[in-house]
Amino acid sequence: MLARYVFALTPCTALPAFAETLATGAESKAAIAGNTVQGAMTGSDAYTEFYAEDCTIKGNDHVANGTIDGDKMCFAYDKPDAECWGASLQGDMIMWKKDGKDDGMGTVLKGNPNKF
To answer: What is the mean pLDDT of each run of 10 residues along the chain (116 residues)?
Structure first.
C-alpha cells in the first residue's frame, strides 16, 4: 500500500532555508521538465503535478499550461491569465517565490510516477 503524505503550509510553519538567489527560467525548467513536483502552496492544499517537456501540466484532476517568462515560471489553470512564481532550487527541493516572499515548496520526483 502506498502511503500518502500531505504537506500543509500555514503562517506558523517554518519553511526550510533556501538560497535567496532565484533560479533562472532555464534552470527552473531543467529541474522540473519531465518530472513531477509534490508539495503545497501557502494557504492552500497539497499538490502533485507532472510537468511535461512541452510545459503541459498534468495533475490528478486537471491539465494546465505552463510558460517561462524571464526568470519566472507561469501557470494557467482555470483562469485566462497565468500566475507567475520565481523559484529557488536546492537539490530536489523547490521553493516557489511570489512578490519577494516564500509562497510554497515542493519536492521534485523523477519522471511521472503517478502516470498523469
So the answer is: 37 50 92 96 92 94 92 88 93 94 95 96
Tell me which residue range forms the domain holding 52. 25-109
How many residues are there in the chain? 116
What's 69's domain CATH number? 2.40.128
Tell whether 6 is covered by a domain.
no
* Confidence (pLDDT) at 7: 37
d(CA 116, CA 95): 23
Q: Are 23 and 31 in contact (CB under 8 A)?
A: yes
Rounded to whole angstroms, how far apart are CA atoms 100 and 76? 21
Q: Residue 101: CA atoms inside 13 Å, Cβ hemisphere, count?
A: 5
The predicted model scores a pTM of: 0.79
Structural domain count, the chain: 1
Q: Is residue 5 part of a domain?
A: no
* Separation of alpha carbons 92 and 110, rounded Å: 9
Please, is 18 exposed, middle or buried when counting C-beta atoms within 10 Å of its C-beta (0-12, 13-18, 19+)? middle
